[in-house]
Amino acid sequence: MVKEGYRGVEYYKGPDLAKGYMLDKAKEVYEELTIGHTIENINEAIELYNIIKYVKDDTFLLYLGEDKEEWLKEKDGIAKSLVGKYINHHSDILAEYEEVDFEYKECFWEIIEKKEVE
Q: What are the structural domain ranges in the chain?
């Protein structure tokens, strides 16, 4: 899913001009997402995590429109399952920190913090 030279979806809280662009990219990612998909690396997991945050705060649904609610629920369920499997099956997730793209560094620590809480 994550391509060479690809800059993944970042989450922006509150008003931000980059949100529309990120939501366009998020839609493309979710359109390609299937149940049998396997996350290849930590950056792909973080990208899906960021999209999940847009779904959680209802930004993505507002962007797509109410008629896409069922589609979004299905894709979000797949994304959550994939991210959970990836994070929980890597016993030493901290070892992957060096592979994390610069723009995802803060989000990486957010995931680590949540993993410790759960």
A: 19-117
